[in-house]
Write a structure and sequence with these properties.
mainly alpha; two-stranded antiparallel sheet; 67% helix
Amino acid sequence: MDRERHPPGLYILFFTEMWERFSFYLILGILFQYLTDYQKGGMGMDGGDAAVIVGSYQGLVYFTPFIGGLLADRLFGCRRMIVIGGLLMMCGHLALAWPGQIGLFLGLGLLILGNGAFKPNISTLVGNLYEPNSPLRDAGYNIFYMGINIGAFVCNFIAAFVRNYVDEHPIYITSEWKMGGWHAAFGSAAIGMLLGVIIFSLNYRRFARADQNPAAHEGTSESLAPLWLQCLLPAILLGAIGWIAASRGPLANWFQENGMKPPTVAFLGACLPVIVFYLTMWQKVPDVRGRGRVAALLVIFTVVIIFWSTFQLYTTALTAWTRDVTDRVPNALVRLFTDNLPDVSENAPPSYYFNAGPETPRPDREDFDVVSPERYKELEKAKQLEVKEGEKVFVTPEMREKVYANATPATPTLPPGKQLKLVNTELFSSIEPGFIILFTPLLVGFWHFLRVRGMEPSTSAKIGLGLILTGAAAAVMLLATLSCNESHEKSSAWWLFGNYFLITIGELCLSPMGLSLVNKMAPADIRAFMMGGWFLATSFGNKISGIFGEVYENGKLFGVNIDHKNFWIVLIIANLVGGGIIFALLPWFNRQMAGPDE
């Protein structure tokens, strides 16, 4: 293979992953909003409860890849698992388009299974395209990672357009049942997943040489027995026990007082056998060099949990900050876009004005229909609180008072029947993948510049640097919190840009480098399984991120009050400590990486 050029198969996997991530991140961009929304057909949940669901979903969706990786190694091969996973996820997106809790939990369940089959195996195929010790592998993963973020960038614009358009023009499935904007957006994700499956299937044979041959392992059925008996069955049992213990019995009150709800306790219980299983697999690696490499990977897996617990806050805490605190009124430049494409901006709900400054235009007082709190609850249950142009907006007396609380005689008033247009909350989730697209070529070029001069940091050092930069990103949000009184004024959107800029550089140093590191260091016969371990670490971090999201919403951590200022301080310290651990162990990591790849 030409060591100076990337293999052509990389670009097929690039576009496959791009469309799969389009659908995946579309769901993440709007899920928390859908769960907490009570005006546009959402579930109307408390923010803390919604954070538990989002965190549990993100944890489980990255929990299953270690199973998918092992099944590929021992039974099906990477290619089959990718196709199976893609089809499962497409069905999951379609299920989410069905309103109600059945569609919600069925859809999320299918996405969890599908991602487990898809994600570790397409990442493994990327590394397998390269020869051992190829200097281009890190850059290949960066290019692949850019495909992920093109999909993540575009999806939020599609989600915003679809949900705004369908909210204004509902799709009637029957005379009594209509599909709202949230569900139409969920359904549109299925199209992206279908395109990803088609692209990969048309090039299925191209990746035969890069795929592991499961038939090469003797005793396939026996090799899976430890997975079922030592890992999955205990995980299911401990998860069930944890759920029951947190729901009823003498420990239920203790868990409740410490902010640990049944899904969280169940998830943590299910993780214990998986951790033990990985340690057992490490002990069974036959040669000393392989055991050392697996040990180094397990240490890195543990530390990067801190990164993911901070990074994934964009789906909970940062979404809440964007929705409730960030000034989302389009400026003159953005209005050139929103005025010509009105369906990419949403009407401001009454709650937006509660902490808006006097410069923010208010609706005409006559545009509000003031109802009793009891009547408002009835309208909320009937999902009749949508804010539309030319129609009355229902509010309680207290809500109307809060709308005008910060207004002055100089505050502009909107024309009668007009509503204030806002940039959709989910569009801010595109800032980070947009930065990835912009900075990936620059960073790849920078690493190449250092590499040809013998100055490129090791992959482990890049991961440590990524953690430190993530701590700096949390520091930006600390400054944003200190810069405004959240209950009385809006915050500039530039704080979010600063946070996402730093966390983007941190992610580029850590996430694609981690994928490359696993492919370099894992023994060949458990490579996909260890790739699943990387996503298992992501799973733990994602679930902890959901717990942090609940802390952000409820202001309590293990029964201790924690305000938003201290929330960000905790994350700053955690990431700096994680980065310090990586740099302290760097000589040991470098010794494990020395020598040829397997």
